[in-house]
Write a structure and sequence with these properties.
two-stranded antiparallel sheet; Growth Hormone, Chain: A; mainly alpha; single chain
Amino acid sequence: MTATTAQSASTGEFLGHPRGLVICFLTEMWERFSFYGMRGLLIFYLTQHFLFSDEIAAGIYGAYISLVYITPVIGGIVADRFLGPGKAVVLGALLLVAGHFGMAIEGAQAVEVTVQGQTLVQRETFYLQVFYFSLALIIMGVGFLKANISTLVGSMYERKDSRRDGAFTLFYMGINMGSFLGAIVCGYLLQRYGFSAGFGAAGIGMLLGLIVFVRGKHLFGDAAKPVNPALLHQQVLPGINREWAIYLGALLGVIVCWQLIQHRMIVGGLLSSSLIIMVLVVVIYAFTKCAPHDRNRMLVCLFLMSYQVIFWSLFEQTGSSLNLMSDRNIDRVVFGFEIPVVWFQSVNAFFIMTLAPLFSAAWVYLGRRGWEPSTPAKFALSLIQLGLGFLFLEYGASIATDPTQVAVIWLILLYLLHTTGELCISPVGLSMTTKLSVPGVVGMMMGCWFLATAGGNYVSGTIAAMTGSDTVGGEVVDPAAALATYMDVYTTAGWYSIGIGVFALLLVPALKHFMHGIR
């Protein structure tokens, strides 16, 4: 029994899992409440409050959401080598609280003015910069919290513990419970009181998550502590030890992200460079530091992460182009009630909450009988389901009697298929990363997982920009043309996703061979 496992046993269990899983569940639930509550409002804040065009708004959204998944590489490495997961999560939560409350500083509505026959948009520079700086705080906060809360979940289980996938699926259920509540609460407050109230609620949610983690951090024992606490006390600058230097570095990172979010093309270059560097680092480490079986597992883990880029580039249309399409081209009236558009951001989370326990039980049931699909097979199935979701939405548009409106059931069906696909890749991938990685670099590999997600999210902004339509005052000019553009892009995306998923199924036997008994 390892020290971590012994610690888990000493603190008791809850529903067959260590009690620390409850703390991770609740902390991440409130963090996702704030993150997804804010995300549901973001594209509308950009297009309706600041009056950015669809293309520019999609670019800002893509840059932001990709930076959110780049910074966990930094947070994972810093926690592995110096801070430990516990301090890293607290630092991240503090930055997130500040960022979400900063978003609540709304400022005046942008206005369109005509100057010499040309339409220009006037925005208050101060409040626009407050907005960008708040996004930067959130980006760095997620960087320190996201990778390390997942690492803490993995630290409570042995590498071959049969409960691991189930634990990560339950943890993922907590993520989506927060997402569901965030979209409902923040969406309602947006409709009733405006953007400031919606963003403020997100800040309150993150504050609750910080309180939960601080009060329950003792349940993780040594797993949450720095590997070598003495390193944090070493003086690295006059009057500043390494721990405080890290905190100052995090604030410097906020300033860097503040500038990057305003220069989106640099983000693409930074992301490409980071992906290349991280691949080289992992490959060199695998060949120079690992035994043959561990080396092969690390390389398979790295390869499977590439599927993330494809999956999230399409899935993340949820917060950008699909969000705008829901507002413009979905018939949202059901039994005389018009569904607030932000509430559709909760549909995916609702399906995960209802389906995650079934998937968790199914993996256990199939695993006991030797029928459970391997991790590579689950990843391939996720891409096929993702593509089918887009094709069903396109079919719904093709049979609609109104060329500007699609029945809401087809959007719900898309979210259902995207959710089942997500359950085959995201929680399974988190578990895969912790069990295929060498224990000493789990944080770094978890950062690589989120870096691959960042790549997909950046591409998602490019895809969303392809769906852009002409707008005046934040309202689309030609709804029928807008719907046709959406469907052209989504149909192409759907067929590409299915094709890649089928090819991935053919690679499953070879990948399983190099995983050496780990599924």
